[in-house]
Write a structure and sequence with these properties.
The complex is a heterodimer.
Chain A (H helix, E strand, L loop, with lengths): L1 H16 L2 H24 L5 H19 L1 H8 L2 H7 L4 H22 L2 H9 L4 H28 L3 H22 L4 H10 L5 H6 L1 E3 H28 L1
Helix pairs in contact in A: 1-6, 2-3, 2-6, 3-8, 3-9, 4-5, 4-8, 6-8, 6-12, 8-9, 8-12, 9-10
Chain B lengths: L2 H32 L3 E3 L10 H8 L5 E6 L7 H14 L3 E6 L5 H6 L7 E6 L2 E5 L4 H12 L5 E5 L16 H9 L3 E5 L11 E5 L7 H12 L3 E5 L9 H6 L2 E3 L3 E3 L4 E2 L2 E7 L1 E2 L11 E2 L6 E3 L7 E8 L5 E3 L13 E2 L3 E14 L2 E12 L15 H12 L22 H31 L1
Parallel strand pairs in B: 2-3, 6-7, 6-8, 8-9, 9-21
Antiparallel strand pairs in B: 2-4, 4-5, 10-16, 11-18, 12-13, 13-15, 14-17, 17-20, 18-19, 20-21
Helix pairs in contact in B: 2-5
Classes of the chains: A mainly alpha, B alpha/beta.
Chain lengths: ~240, ~450
């Protein structure tokens, strides 16, 4: 646990030393703010339902930028050697780095809390759906990050890592569209596999345990594949 | 072992582990999907379905396909989608198919849907098209469609009525087909001595001579046992049921309705009806027309077991002409518009049964015209919908449920121009810029 915390702290500091975190946060806030004001202007509803839907798409583009460095950077600068020879276990390294990226996403989401505050100044929002919606978008972003973290382990080039994770995310995201053409049994399976199809309930204000189970398995699966890949790279080197 | 082979072995091993993990994840999710719990966090419990609905859904034996036909612009679309998703969630027997009638006209046509914003329920050979406003309509349709028995409609014949097997312009064969599509079975009855045991609805459409007194008594007995009657009349013809109908609170006028303000191809004796009373039969119905119709209105004095409601009327320019040879409004004789031409009556009855007594409801619908539903006119305007709606209403079960509709919890915000501007400045400019400034400062300090 202490070791995970140590990796987490080190990684977090490197986020703040590099300009990436700030640029990402600034762009994210500007985009979300623009969506927020526009949606509010058109729907005239004290709700974040449609905004959170848009935010998920923004995360689709942003999270690969947050995770691309995690392992690729270490490999490029050859600090990977140090990591590999350190007494750190693979899963501690992966989890520490993953949590650091998760922390950045939490920061991004906290910054958007000004929107519900704005809503409560001018209207009377229903807090249930807002809470559920935030939980949903957080779990979605956490899943994105787990896929990004795994992709970063695959390669030593940051751009390649970002591309791999972006392609995977897009694929996961669009599985639902494919589902429409597929036969019935396959349709249900593909639709369930798609990352986006589990968001609607959260945005409505419903927490369904099946979606929690889904996101937790997605996260654990990709992180475990990452850990196993890292382990196998140790054998291959 | 050669190193290359070893690497291959490790690689294969890794792939197998990943596949096993994936299958494990699928199993976990399968269990998670089936043993789930839903928590509705909305303040007004918008998405929590009533006990009645849950009971109905759990008792479904056959799969039900619910297709919606909403175009993108329909303001109710999202609300109905959300509602139906809850039904979908509760049962493996329910599948929801969202069809956009504009994007997918072929599917819309294939399902026989002609108007937008409707929901189609299909189960086995049964189908039901309704306009859905909330949970009550959806659950009611599910109850209807899952009922095993088929309702039987008897068309009386032998008095010159329109024949449901006749496919000539004057026949009723088209309406028979349409009733069959709704899951009803139509039969013909030569002579009404006593109601057949399976008679759910008696239709007397356009008799041109009077029923025998014994038949009138039989009709009365049938109604007093909770029967259902659709009586379609024509001007100038006595069918012998006038007195009985008066007892049921329905006054049949001996006249011809004329409406110069709203008529079919300038024939003033064929009024086009566009104004309806508040009645479930005509809810949301567009125009209908009636070639030669007599007035049917509510009796002034009615018993307290009776609920008599007018259904539709002509415009205020119309009148009920007592002297059909001279179509001129005479305020001393003729009845001034708006003229009511259709009336419904419901009577609550206490029927003695083996185990005590039972409250039942008899229903009657009387309309001053029978030609509107013949093969020549049924396909025009909304005549067919009117007939089907009437039959549906007459056959409605009293045990059908009533679920208090939930008010959509809309929380509107009205913003002034300056408020929008300040929201824009705060959220699009100030917030991101302050992050950028703080970030630059921290980054600068670390660099130097």
């Amino acid at each position: 646990m202490r070791k995970i915390a140590a990796v987490f702290t080190k990684e977090l500091i490197s986020y703040f030393v590099s300009p990436v975190a700030y640029v990402v946060l600034t762009v994210f806030l500007a985009l979300s703010g623009y969506f927020f004001v526009n949606i509010l202007f058109y729907t005239k509803e004290a709700s974040l339902r449609y905004l959170l839907g848009n935010m998920s798409v923004t995360f689709l583009f942003v999270t690969p930028l947050l995770t691309m460095r995690l392992f690729a950077e270490e490999k490029r600068t050859n600090t990977m050697e140090l990591l590999v020879t350190s007494p750190l276990r693979d899963f501690e390294m992966v989890l520490g780095k993953y949590f650091a990226s998760l922390f950045i996403v939490l920061m991004m989401l906290s910054a958007t809390l000004i929107y519900p505050i704005c809503l409560s100044i001018y209207g009377d929002p229903d807090w249930g759906p807002i809470l559920a919606g935030y939980l949903g978008v957080f779990l979605l972003a956490a899943s994105f990050l787990s896929i990004g973290t795994m992709s970063s382990i695959f390669t030593k080039n940051q751009i390649v890592a970002a591309l791999i994770s972006f392609c995977l995310l897009l694929l996961y995201w669009t599985l639902g569209w494919l589902a429409d053409q597929a036969p019935k049994a396959m349709e249900l399976f593909l639709d369930y596999l798609a990352l986006g199809s589990h968001q609607a309930d959260f945005q409505k204000g419903i927490i369904d345990t099946r979606h929690l189970v889904y996101y937790f398995t997605v996260i654990s699966f990709h992180l475990t594949v990452g850990i196993l890949t890292l382990e196998s790279q140790r054998w291959r080197e | 072992m050669i190193p290359g082979f070893r690497r291959l072995l490790y690689g294969a091993n890794l792939i197998i582990i990943i596949i096993v993990m994936f299958l494990l994840a699928v199993v976990i999710n399968y269990l998670g999907k089936h043993y789930n719990k839903r928590i509705d966090l909305t303040a007004s419990k918008q998405f929590t379905l009533s006990e009645q609905t849950i009971k109905t859904i759990n008792s479904l034996k056959k799969p039900v396909l619910i297709s919606t036909f909403f175009n993108k612009k329909n303001p109710n679309r999202q609300r109905i989608y959300d509602l139906l998703a809850e039904y979908d969630n509760l049962s493996a027997n329910i599948t929801v198919d969202k069809v956009d009638p504009i994007a997918n006209p072929s599917k819309t046509q294939e399902k026989g849907i002609t108007s937008y914003g409707v929901v189609l329920f299909e189960s086995g050979s049964k189908r039901e098209v309704t306009t859905v406003f909330g949970e009550q309509e959806v659950t009611q349709s599910l109850i209807k469609i899952s009922k095993e028995e088929t309702k039987v409609i008897y068309f009386l014949s032998g008095h010159g009525e329109h024949d449901s097997k006749n496919d000539k312009p004057n026949g009723y064969s088209e309406i028979r087909t349409r009733l069959a599509n709704q899951g009803y079975q139509a039969k013909t009855l030569e002579f009404f001595q006593s109601a057949p045991a399976d008679c759910d609805l008696l239709v007397i459409a356009g008799a041109d001579k009077a029923l025998l007194p014994s038949e009138v008594t039989a009709v009365e007995n049938y109604l007093e046992q909770g029967g259902r009657l659709l009586l379609l009349l024509d001007p100038g013809i006595e069918v012998g049921l006038e007195k009985l109908m008066a007892k049921w609170g329905v006054a049949i006028g001996d006249d011809l309705v004329v409406d110069p303000a709203s008529s079919f191809s300038k024939d003033v004796t064929t009024p086009v009806i566009v104004r309806y009373y508040q009645h479930p039969i005509v809810y949301g119905l567009s125009a209908t027309f009636f070639p030669r119709v007599r007035s049917v209105s509510k009796e002034e004095d009615i018993g307290d077991q009776l609920t008599v409601l007018p259904v539709m009327m002509t415009t205020a320019n119309g009148w009920a002409e007592k002297n059909p040879d001279k179509l001129q409004f005479d305020k001393d004789v003729d009845l001034a518009g708006p003229v009511t031409i259709c009336v419904s009556a419901v009577k609550s009855l206490l029927i003695k049964t083996a185990g005590g007594s039972d409250v039942r409801y008899a229903r009657v619908l009387v309309l001053g015209d029978s030609d509107f539903a013949t093969n020549s006119f049924i396909k025009m305007l909304s005549n067919s919908d009117l007939f089907i709606n009437s039959v549906n209403w007459l056959l409605e079960d009293e045990d059908l449920i009533s679920i208090r509709p939930k008010e959509p919890d809309e929380r509107k915000i009205q913003l002034t121009g300056s408020q929008v501007r300040s929201l824009f400045v705060i959220n699009v400019l100030v917030a991101p810029l302050s992050v950028m400034v703080i970030g630059t400062l921290i980054w600068w300090r670390y660099r130097s």
